[in-house]
Amino acid sequence: MTSIVPYVAAGLASPWLRQQRQRLHRLGHALRRQPATVEVYLAVDDPYSYLLAQALPRLQARFAVQWRVRTVLNREAQHYPEPEAWYANACVDAQHLARLYGLQWPKDLPQWSSARLESYTRDLLLAEQQPDAVARVADLYRRAWGGAGLTRAWQQQDWRAWLAANELRRARLKHYASAMLYYAGEWYWGLDRLDHLERRLQSERRALTLDGVQFDRTWQSFCQLPAPETAPEATELEVFFSIRSPYSHLGLQRAMQLAEHYHLPLRLRPVLPMLMRGLPVPPTKKWYIFHDTKREADKLGIPYGKVADPLGAGVERCYQLFAWAQAQGQGLAYLHSVSLGVNSQGLDAANDRHLRQMVERAGLSWAHAQSLLGQQDWRAWAQDNLDALREAGLWGVPSFRYGDLCFWGQDRLGLLEQALRRRWHLTAPADAP
């Protein structure tokens, strides 16, 4: 059964199947004579929702679809196992995005007391029901995040029922987060996935303007501008990575590209996957990440989809050999080989034949590797890496650190590149702000 799973995963992730699902949804809407509608799930205290609310009026002016805002609030612990760390990083991250796209960001973050959160959630629920909901929502977020006082716009007692109905619909559509857009069977997260939605609406001839894709500044010019022959600094680019994380797979490929382009030394810092650290990854979250990674991988030209999940023994065996591979000067080649194997070639790291293929592809001796399997000294450096990740103010993988520059997520490598170019005075006028 295990050998079949990667092929099933590859089939489920195929662009052809995604296109067929999109066609079925369009057909269903046409048969029911339903208008094309993008549902936007926003939480008033979510930094990414704040940015998305600002972008909505611009999107509304560009595409001939209806925009249906749905207020949500509750973050389930199983989906947000470290909520305080998530929020702290999200605020820093959203500030970077606000600068990139010329959006507002508060000088001082609002304090979300229970009274303030409840008041603005009720206001958002009322705003979503108005004909000019998009404009009202954008204005409400400006007030909420700009420090405006509390209001009492909705006094009715049924606001919690309305909120629960929105959250139930989101769950039925198989999602859990805020700052999410749902359109005809597919989910898009915040500003980072608007480029996929833009292209889809343009392909369906719903664009009202000819301005192309606008929300692609995090990746479009990545490693496209001239670089110096040697890096102005000898600082290492640290890559916090999990062999089981699909986004880590993308992040490793892009970090290698960044390091090669700017001649940066790489320091790979693997950590244990969340599940092996006792943190939950519910099926809804797992499947969204799987499909989203495939969508991003196709966009970036990175192989992904034929996945052999290395959870458990596979992860342990991979990590048992990493320090040895590093000592041979092949740490990057080894981790790259394993990442490609488990994420795009269906190679099972718990299988000797498959692991041997990944080891030897990195230029290492399988006979020597076999003698190292079963050792447990890797647990100490994996914990050290996790501690360093947390000390940097980061909480998930992949994360990247270059001196005092810290970013979480493979989506942010473009911002890291722009920060480096500004620091090194390489930024051309055409660079993103």
What does this 3D model show about the protein?
By secondary structure, this protein is an alpha/beta fold. The chain has 2 domains: 35-203, Glutaredoxin; 237-423, Glutaredoxin, CATH 3.40.30. Helices cover 50% and strands 9% of the residues. The protein has 17 helices and 8 strands. It has helices at residues 5-12, 15-32, 47-62, 83-101, 114-127, 133-145, 159-172, 194-203, 246-262, 283-300, 313-320, 322-327, 331-344, 352-361, 366-372, 378-391, 413-423, and strands spanning 37-42, 66-71, 180-183, 186-189, 237-241, 266-270, 399-402, 405-408. The strands form 2 sheets. A 4-stranded mixed β-sheet has the order 2-1-3-4, with helices on both faces. The protein has a 4-stranded mixed β-sheet with strand order 6-5-7-8. β1 (37-42), α3 (47-62) and β2 (66-71) form a beta-alpha-beta unit.
How many domains? Answer: 2
In CATH terms, the superfamily of the largest domain is: Glutaredoxin
The name of the CATH architecture of the largest domain is 3-Layer(aba) Sandwich
The secondary structure category is alpha/beta
Spatial separation of the terminal alpha carbons? 50 Å
CATH class of the largest domain equals Alpha Beta
Rg over alpha carbons? 23 Å
Strand arrangement within the widest β-sheet reads 2-1-3-4
Mean pLDDT over the full residue set: 93
The 3D shape can be described as globular
Here the CATH topology of the largest domain equals Glutaredoxin
Q: Which percent band covers the strand fraction?
A: 5-15%
Q: Which residues sit in consecutive blocks of at least 5 with pLDDT less than 50?
A: 429-433
Sheet with most strands: 4 strands, mixed
Strands, total number: 8
Question: What is the chain-wise order of helices and strands?
Answer: HHEHEHHHHEEHEHEHHHHHHHEEH
| Residue share in helix | 40-55%
Quaternary structure: single chain
Count of helical stretches: 17
